[in-house]
Amino acid sequence: xxxxxxxxxxxxxxxxxxxxxxxxxxxxxxxxxxxxxxxxxxxxxxxxxxxxxxxxxxxxxxxxxxxxxxxxxxxxxxxxxxxxxxxxxxxxxxxxxxxxxxxxxxxxxxxxxxxxxxxxxxxxxxxxxxxxxxxxxxxxxxxxxxxxxxxxxxxxxxxxxxxxxxxxxxxxxxxxxxxxxxxxxxxxxxxxxxxxxxxxxxxxxxxxxx
Length: 210
What we know:
The protein is an alpha/beta fold. The protein has helices spanning 8-21, 33-44, 66-73, 88-97, 135-151, 178-189, and strands at residues 55-60, 79-85, 102-105, 118-123, 153-162, 193-196, 203-209.
């Protein structure tokens, strides 16, 4: 159990990005606009049998709802979108932009019952930056949050972390070795998972299924 809410340091970092860069990819700390849609496409490919039936999807850590904008641009009308963020500033922005959407401003580590279940949950960028946290602190946060989130997913979930297969690592990013990941998944989450490292970025995405 996490004793201190040190993960709030990560939230404050993203709020500072929003204040500095506004409603843009840099406002959610993605440096390259051309990479953003690649991530959205990969995240949504966690969905099995797409377009065959209506499904609910929670954008966990929705930021400025850029994933919803991607869904609209690509006419993915079978996806019933919901957003969640721990930051009140981002949720206020989302509600101004898309007042008809359902948004949650909640800390599910403190209040796991604050959200219902969804068919799929995607966590884009939630675990890529650790900021001032140590690796062990970030790993504990990752394990606890992912366990809670997966319990809310009826079918599956997706998340990304920074890869270890890089030329150099940044101290503020969460480069998670796959052996540590796999050991945790098979013991505590599910043996039904997919690791994707095939889309050209210095990260990998994981699909976990019930």
